[in-house]
Amino acid sequence: MSDIDTHTEGGTGSADVDAVVIGAGFSGLYMLHRLRELGLSVRVFEKGDGVGGTWYWNRYPGARCDSESHIYCYSFAEELHEDWEWSERYPEQPEILAYLQFVADRLDLRRDIEFETEVTSATYDESSSTWTVETADGERVSTRFFITAVGCLSKPFRPDFDGLDDFEGEWYHTARWPDEEIDFGDDHVGVIGTGSTGIQFISEVGGRADHLTVFQRTPNYAVPARNRPLGDEEYADIRANYDDIWERARDSRLGMPFDWEQHTAFNLSDEEIEEVLEERWQQGGFRFLHAFEPGYILSNAEINETISEFIREKIREKVDDPETAEKLVPTDHPYGSKRPPMDYNDYYGTYNRDDVTLVDVDEAPIEAFTPDGIRTADDHYDLDTVVFATGFDAMTGALLAIDIEGRDGQTLEAKWEAGPRTYLGLGIHGFPNLFTITGPQSPSVLTNMPMAIEQHVEWIADCIAYMDEQGYDRIEATEDAETQWVQNTNMLAENMLFSEAKSWYRGANVPGKTQVFTPFPGGLDNYREICDRVAGDDYDGFELDRVDDAPTVEGR
Ligand code: FAD
Ligand code: NA7
Q1: What whole-number distance in Å separates Cα of residue 304 and Cα of residue 160?
Q2: Is the CB of 196 under 6 A from ligand 2?
Q3: Cα(229)–Cα(165) distance, integer angstroms
Q4: Distance from the alpha carbon of residue 318 to the mean position of ligand 2, in angstroms
Q5: Rounded to whole angstroms, how far apart are CA atoms 382 and 548?
Q6: Whose CA is closest to atom 3 on ligand 2?
């Protein structure tokens, strides 16, 4: 029997479960755990045949997390820290996958997850305030709450090149990598894309294939990660200070517990700025983005240009051939206006190898695949294998892949035609009882994501608990609150440097997609405060009410 007093009086309908959650990555796993703690019945549907989400799918060589391992995990349960130990400063994909499998086992989560089950549609019924969720197998489940944990970066994007069907070699997308070792030994390998993923792949596979040809459209600012094993002493120190680490991470803009130089760059001489940057360069990873307050770096064009130029000089120093170096130097966007990638394995040095070639496909675009390789505007490259490191239909792709129909027959696709609209990235006007974990207009990808995910999951669980305590059946964001939130997010983004890049943050990587900056750029700390205030104010901006035909949940 539930710990919560569900409002069932007078209701004539029924629902199979209290909540359906889609996705079994960081978000879905924790959501399931929290809802179970509330005594709710939950079913989770997951397309993959195991838990892990991102870390289940992205098995390409070199796949690693850019967040430091000790903060790229859940903070909510001390027992999980006690019995888990990260081996390196930045974990590799198999280690993160093993961590999420460990969490699933420890919290006994798998029994409520249906694997290899894709959700294809979800339809809201107004009279009972329930959702009916349908899977690709034709199964239909009715539920009071419908919660998406589908991931911001989970629908791969592959450009539609002519001739791919005629290509006689093998091709792979990094986000759908097979669960087996691929031996590139004698192959001429081509890789398209130099984002975070391409950079990891290129430095890992350069030298492991007979020849690697990199097709680069836009160069990027890769900062050294400075990976290393975590020693016993360092680990003991982390464990002893975890409370403080989590508090600082939760209370930070990016969900990371790092300090920054307390001065703004205005108060420092050029030499002093250079010193700060050099020190941070040596620390590596996201600590570099914390040289000064990150919001300041991402909004002040002058300091940003100083930092961008600092990195450009580092690239020039590392690449022997000046012509190649200039091709690798980014000049079209400010540092941080696209997702900053990390360099684990001497990425720029890879281009000093004889068996690695850089092709600038901004200058001479890819025209088509041929049976033997790739033809660009000015050459042909013979290839045995092509790797698409071309990223994702980010932020909205996985949500819109589900046919979601809300109140009055309105579809999410139609509602979001001109770009996503949400209130807090958590609720959508016209779509009652739908919660979107890391939804558009929430901080999500601009943070160390487990921190943002935990905040969302906890807020949603508290909201459902509140509804049940107060006897509410239905919650829906108001149109006004949603409009204001979208305007607020857009205004914040316009005052930062994000608009100067053609990034997946804005949907610019997918041809034809409406371009609008999607994550909330005001900082996780501020966002958390806003969400807490909304909840404390009886869910201000949401409408809560009772429904005559509210369902009872079978088996409860
Ligand atoms: P996901 O892990 O994407 O899980 C979503 C799940 O939903 C998937 O398993 C998917 O199969 C399932 N799903 C989607 N649609 C359906 C459907 N219709 N039916 C059934 N199942 C469905 N974040 C960081 O903070 N730091 C990093 O350094 C970092 N590095 C990254 C590196 C890579 C290569 C990638 C791709 C992402 C990285 N991220 C990083 C972002 C990462 O996605 C998040 O940190 C986190 O893993 C997201 O968890 P999630 O559960 O929200 O989504
Ligand atoms: P990204 O960052 O979107 O990178 C994709 C790369 O693919 C990028 O260099 C693109 O160039 C390139 N691309 C995309 N389409 C084409 C075409 N048509 N021709 C040539 N090149 C193309 O995805 P990642 O997977 O690297 O990173 C996404 C997140 O996953 C990252 O934040 C991590 O969290 C992990 P462009 O820059 O658009 O010119």
Answers
A1: 35
A2: yes
A3: 43
A4: 23
A5: 67
A6: 391
8 Å CB contact between 242 and 81: yes
Q: Which atom of ligand 1 is nearest to the CA of 28?
A: 51
Going by pLDDT thresholds of 50, 70 and 90, the confidence category of residue 556 is low
* Alpha carbon distance 140, 267 (integer Å): 62
Pocket lining: 193 vs ligand 2, CB cutoff 6 Å: yes
Query: Percent of the chain beyond pLDDT 70?
Result: 97
Q: In whole angstroms, how far apart are CA 140 and each of 17, 120, 126, 148?
A: 11, 10, 17, 16
3-class secondary structure, 141: strand
The count of other CB atoms within 10 Å of the CB of residue 148 is 24
Interval 48-73: pLDDT, tens: 999 999 999 999 999 999 999 999 99
Q: Where are the alpha helices (DSSP H) in 1-90?
A: 26-37, 54-57, 78-82
In degrees and rounded to multiples of 5, residue 253 shows phi and psi of -65, -45
How many angstroms is it from 379 CA to the middle of ligand 2? Answer: 22
Q: Single out the residue of 149, 130, 143, 148 nearest to residue 556, CA to CA.
A: 143
In whole angstroms, give the CA distance from residue 6 to residue 16.
14
Q: Identify the sign of the CA torsion 444, 450, 452, 455.
A: positive
